[in-house]
Amino acid sequence: MNANTPLWDDGTWQALAPLHGLVTADVCVVGLGGSGLSCIDDLLALGHSVVGIDAGDVASGAAGRNGGLLLPGTADYHHDAVRLLGRARAVRLHELTLEEITRIDAQAPGCVRYPGSVRLSASDEEDGDCTRQYDAMRADGLPVEPYDGPFGHGLFFPGDAAFNPLRRCRALARRVQANGAVLFGRSAALRVDAGVVSTTDGMIHCDRVICAVDGRLEALLPELLGAVRTARLQMLATAPASDVSIPCPMSTRWGFDYWQQLPDGAIALGGGRDVAMDEEWTHDREPTARVQAHLEQVLRERLGVHAPITHRWAANVSYTDSGLPVLAEVRPRVWAIGGYSGTGNAMGALCGRAVARAAFGLPSEFATLVTPLPS
Ligand SMILES: Cc1cc2nc3c(=O)[nH]c(=O)nc-3n(C[C@H](O)[C@H](O)[C@H](O)COP(=O)(O)OP(=O)(O)OC[C@H]3O[C@@H](n4cnc5c(N)ncnc54)[C@H](O)[C@@H]3O)c2cc1C
What are the start-end ranges of the E strands in the chain? Predict the structure, then answer.
């Protein structure tokens, strides 16, 4: 068993060196997940020098430890997004996330697949919700079909993507390093102020700081307590399974459980946060017996998979009440992005690229779209 190591890790990455001493850059990006690396990529394109630091290493948080579903839209189903944000905003966010998925594919060649995805209904109530989602997506010209297959019924979304999230982040890290970014691992930001970031053994002098941290964001920037709340999400994975054939990623029970079968037959299965909701609002990131037992039950009884379990892991993400991410200047010249409510693969990259512009006063359509409406 690989203790708290994600299935995605092929063990070939050479760890980043830690920061020792003083370095200077236009921008310090704190957090080297998909969001921080996308931000760095755009900062470099805008002509800024960048130092990036991570408490662990590239994608050692949720960005390298997630379910690998690369889905368009916000954290809410489309009909809910339309209700909460208005139709034009929900549709435009859907379009921008789709464009971002294409960009992610281009930036990390060979990482992304397009098998489509399925939402399975688990109750009469969820049947009705699937119908509302179907109607809203059809009305807006978004691809959706009814689904009825061996694992149940619900909706099929043709063209939806899946990827190896860790491999993608490592490819992006190599790309930004090749373009001039200087990256350090094992260098947690202990103190973040306008113009200076302190780590255990080093210091970064910079004009701007961008904190691209999803889980535990409110620990780094206590101003965001109440705006974001950290949770733990858990997964397991198996050896290649020959007893099932799952053609595309699937989710059920309102997205609380999700799984996919990889091209080699291995199953990656996550979820179960709702079986221990109070316990899972935590900054801890170790798998627990209670949620893992639920995941194992889904694996064995719902999917009928008998292959041995090879990996169990967990990571932190943060949630917002609005379902929209945070993108804000939290202190003078200190910006924060995060709070993707469990679906940050495409949204996080968009936030990263938008904050690279917003931090320098440049317009960003996406930043405008995720700014909460006045209540
Ligand atoms: C089990 C699980 C399954 C998920 N499944 C999906 C899915 O299928 N699809 C989807 O879209 N989303 C999914 N998500 C959510 C998604 O993974 C995240 O929203 C997204 O990856 C966040 O990326 P990020 O780069 O913003 O943040 P993170 O991945 O959290 O990266 C932040 C980085 O900052 C570093 N850091 C933290 N504090 C400090 C500090 N003080 N100093 C320096 N560095 C620091 C961390 O080490 C980390 O590497 C899942 C998440 C989990 C945990």
Answer: 2-3, 21-30, 50-53, 69-70, 112-113, 117-120, 145-149, 152-157, 161-163, 182-184, 191-193, 196-198, 202-212, 229-238, 250-252, 257-261, 267-271, 309-319, 326-331, 334-338
108: tokens are 């990390």
Angle at 117 between CA 80 and CA 237, to 5 degrees: 110
The single-letter DSSP state of residue 248 is S
Q: How far is the CA of 372 from the centre of ligand 1 (A)?
A: 22
Separation of alpha carbons 226 and 77, rounded Å: 24
Find, among 40, 103, 3, 84, the residue nearest to 322 by Cα.
84
Cα separation, 292 vs 6, whole angstroms? 14
**For residues 209 and 30, is the Cβ–Cβ distance under 8 A?**
yes
Whose CA is closest to atom 4 on ligand 1?
Answer: 66
Structure tokens at 255: 């997205």
pLDDT of residue 194: 86
Q: What is the DSSP string of 103-138?
A: HHHHHSTTSEE---EEEE--SHHHHHHHHHHHHHHH
Q: Which residues in the chain come in under a pLDDT of 50?
A: none
* Residue 205 β-bridge partners: 24, 196
Of ligand 1's listed atoms, the one at least distance from the Cα of 57 is 49
Nearest CA among 228, 236, 232, 270 for reference residue 253:
270
Pocket (CB within 6 angstroms of ligand 1): 30-36, 53-56, 60-63, 65-69, 188-189, 212-216, 220, 233, 235, 270, 315, 317, 338, 340, 342-345, 348
CA distance 346 to 99: 9
The pLDDT tens digits of the residues spanning 177-197 come to: 999 999 999 999 999 998 999
- Residue ranges of domains in the chain, CATH in brackets: 17-114+162-228+320-375 (3.50.50.60), 115-161+230-318 (3.30.9.10)
